[in-house]
Amino acid sequence: MDIKEIRKRAQGVARGEVTANELEYARSILRSSRGNISSAIYVVGLCGDASDAILIERYLSGPDRDIYGELALKALCRYLGLVEKYREMLRSLIMSDDDIGWENSRMSAINLADIYLENFDDRELGCRLLEIMINEADKDRIAARNSLVHILQLRSELAEPFAMDLDITSGDAKMIVAAAERRFRCSALNRFH
Fold first, then answer.
1. d(CA 109, CA 94)
2. Which of 6, 127, 171, 189 is the most buried (most CB within 10 A)?
3. What own/partner pairs with CB < 8 Å and gap ≥ 24 does 35-42 have?
4. 57 to 35, 83, 102: CA distances (angstroms)
5. Tens of pLDDT along 103-141?
6. pLDDT (tens digit, 9 = 90+) per residue, 69-112?
């Protein structure tokens, strides 16, 4: 079996369904930690169920966490829909000042903030995203900006919805700050605009 081809079908970029045997093949790759682990995480995340979390979880803390941690967290929270189970971890990572556990862990969690906040109120976390965005020294500020744009549903209103650079004095930035302050009631940030 070709796990890359199975992954393409799991992601919907190639025609056809993933069979039960193919899903089991992907699970066996995760169990053995041999083969194309990234593709296997995608397949199990997209086609598996909550009971598969244990197969993916090990890549958050194992020796290969710097390689697979980001994808594993995404598969667990976004693909398997287990954000409730990992809510505390996501919050800890976003609220931290640096990575915890694996390289780019904080950015990984910031990229999942939309599902963290879906049907869940955490104003402090929303304000933290805004703090990260406006802090010119923060390496994750673009990720925070992009998450806020998605969470606040501002894509159609911004001149550059997917900006790769961030000028805090731009009209787009001011719109994001104002919308975030309204939604999350962030009053301590007024000095930034």
1. 6
2. 6
3. 35/3, 36/3, 36/4, 36/7, 37/64, 37/67, 37/68, 38/68, 38/71, 39/3, 39/4, 39/6, 39/7, 40/3, 41/68, 41/71, 41/72, 41/75, 42/7, 42/10, 42/11, 42/71, 42/75, 42/79
4. 17, 13, 13
5. 999 999 999 999 999 999 999 999 999 999 999 999 999
6. 999 999 999 999 999 999 999 999 999 999 999 999 999 999 99
Residue type, 117: L
Q: What are phi and psi of 49, to 5 degrees?
A: -140, 180
Tens of pLDDT, residue by residue over 13-45, are 999 999 999 999 999 999 999 999 999 999 999
The Cα 81–Cα 50 span in angstroms is 8
Residue with tokens 């020294």: 137
> Model confidence at 164, in pLDDT bands (50, 70, 90)?
confident
Which pair of structure tokens corresponds to residue 161? 């919805």
